[in-house]
Amino acid sequence: MAQNQRLTVVPTVTMLGVMKSRLVGATRGHALLKKKSDALTVQFRQILKNIVTTKESMGEVMKDSSFALIEAKYVAGENIKHIVLENVQNASIKVRSRQENIAGVKIPKFEYFTDGETKNDLTGLARGGQQVQQCRAAYVKAIELLVELASLQTSFLTLDEAIKTTNRRVNALENVVKPRLENTITYIKGELDELEREDFFRLKKIQGYKKREIERQLAASKQFVEEQFAEKVSLQKGISIKSAQNLLSAGEKDEDIIF
Amino acid sequence: MYGFEAMTFNIHGGYLEAIVRGYRAGLLTAADYNNLCQCETLDDIKMHLSATEYGPYLQNEPSPLHTTTIVEKCTLKLVDEYKHMLCQATEPLSTFLEYITYGHMIDNVVLIVTGTLHERDVQELLEKCHPLGMFDSIATLAVAQNMRELYRLVLVDTPLAPYFSECITSEDLDDMNIEIMRNTLYKAYLEDFYKFCQKLGGATAEIMSDLLAFEADRRAVNITINSIGTELTRDDRRKLYSNFGLLYPYGHEELAVCEDIDQVRGVMEKYPPYQSIFSKLSYGESQMLDKAFYEEEVKRLCLAFEQQFHYGVFFAYMRLREQEIRNLMWISECVAQNQKSRVHDSVVFIF
């Protein structure tokens, strides 16, 4: 596919005006999109850094919370997990999502909120209550981190998509649309110039014809005047030059004349 | 007659006492625990355990071994030994052996009741019950719709019936918090067990009252510490304390008004046996308290074996086995989670 095709248009002056304004629009759009792409890339790098630190601390926190669970199981008995699970009606920590706008890109963000009190403060009353509460605190921290990590990762993916699209558009404008428009403008200008030249040439030609016409007419009228004078002179001499000449030159043709 | 048990005990109890002493000899020693603590993976643990009495139970497990499987199989061994002893026992030893498992039975009943209230599947709940606490009509607990029916239909036939009727009126059954119910039942159970041992008399009464008193006091301290800062009122708290033990009645009065750990420590330090436990903890720290209590319990349980011709050895053996299973769970979880440095935090050596 040729990179520098041009649009097929009628090469008129109005079209030229239209193309020029389109080119201006394309240039401005290109500059704006480039700015948007840069802003998104900056945000992207920031999020990437955050993701790395969060993931590292995630490893630590999950380890701690698993260990807290072991301690709770040790003191309160193996069944503590089942006891807690059976006693639960609803989740007390829930996640809400909102939309945030970063440089024009809508990114979902998750935050957690506590819904309702857990009435399980008395779990492990006779033994292990402390460990159960500690385990609970450790897991709440783990959930916080997980929710944050989820937010970061979704924004990472969304921003990635947005950056790809924006860059695609920037490149398209730069390498396809603008050259095409420029070529079209050049073509229209060329065509207009050629039309002008044709007109000019036609005008010149017509002028030439007119001049020759006038000269020919002048020459014809001059000859006519000379023949008239010659006729008059010959008539005075008694013979019409015209008819005498005619008889001699056109002898074989006339039927009436037998010899 | 105290002191003359040697004459008549062996007629009915001699065989089983010998059996239980044999079992006791199979408990893991400090050397075994040291070996286990050095293991790198769960397969190493399985290998070490196959050299002990747990061998036949763990042999057939496929290779990616899970910590819960290890614990399950060890519990299975305990259950087998218990059943063997139970079917060989005569009265009153059989009643005594049954009393030992009532604690687990209470846990199972509470678990199924809460699960049913929240509409969980009965089969799943049954799988989560402790095997030592199973009784025949346990599955029918799931049928009852509220507590009154529950009591009327199911519980009245179980050995737990008197605990429900003594301490709980039928209004309370519906509203009461599950934990409070569980602890009230357990309190009634301990008192009942205590009375039963007193009735048996002799060395059994002496040794068992000591062990049960320790249990009651430990529960009182734990309840106090765990209910600091919750909505449990002082009167409720006092209702959960058992009415025997070293702390009864004055210690209970003081514990009921405690509002933080240092006050509890102050109360406990007046009683010499518990002073030594609390002196191991530094101020303001209560995490190590549970381990300290376990250590003290193990010491007292081992002492029970020093005397012959009493039923306390059975109770002591069951408790020691449970502690061993707890140790095994702790070690396998530390190994599985790569936290070998914390292994020695909570392992209680029995010998």
UniProtKB/TrEMBL annotation, chain A:
This is V-type proton ATPase subunit D. It comes from Citrus sinensis (Sweet orange). The lineage of its organism: Eukaryota, Viridiplantae, Streptophyta, Embryophyta, Tracheophyta.
From TrEMBL, chain B:
It is found in: Vacuole membrane. Keywords: Hydrogen ion transport, Ion transport, Transport. It is a peripheral membrane protein. The keyword Iron does not apply. Its main location: membrane. GO terms for cellular component: proton-transporting V-type ATPase, V0 domain; vacuolar membrane. InterPro entries: ATPase_csu/dsu_sf, ATPase_V0-cplx_csu/dsu, ATPase_V0-cplx_dsu, V-type_ATPase_csu/dsu, V-type_ATPase_csu/dsu_dom_3. It comes from the Eukaryota. GO terms for molecular function: proton-transporting ATPase activity, rotational mechanism. Subunit of the V0 complex of vacuolar(H+)-ATPase (V-ATPase), a multisubunit enzyme composed of a peripheral complex (V1) that hydrolyzes ATP and a membrane integral complex (V0) that translocates protons. V-ATPase is responsible for acidifying and maintaining the pH of intracellular compartments and in some cell types, is targeted to the plasma membrane, where it is responsible for acidifying the extracellular environment. V-ATPase is a heteromultimeric enzyme composed of a peripheral catalytic V1 complex (components A to H) attached to an integral membrane V0 proton pore complex (components: a, c, c'', d and e). V-ATPase is a heteromultimeric enzyme made up of two complexes: the ATP-hydrolytic V1 complex and the proton translocation V0 complex. Belongs to the V-ATPase V0D/AC39 subunit family. This is V-type proton ATPase subunit.
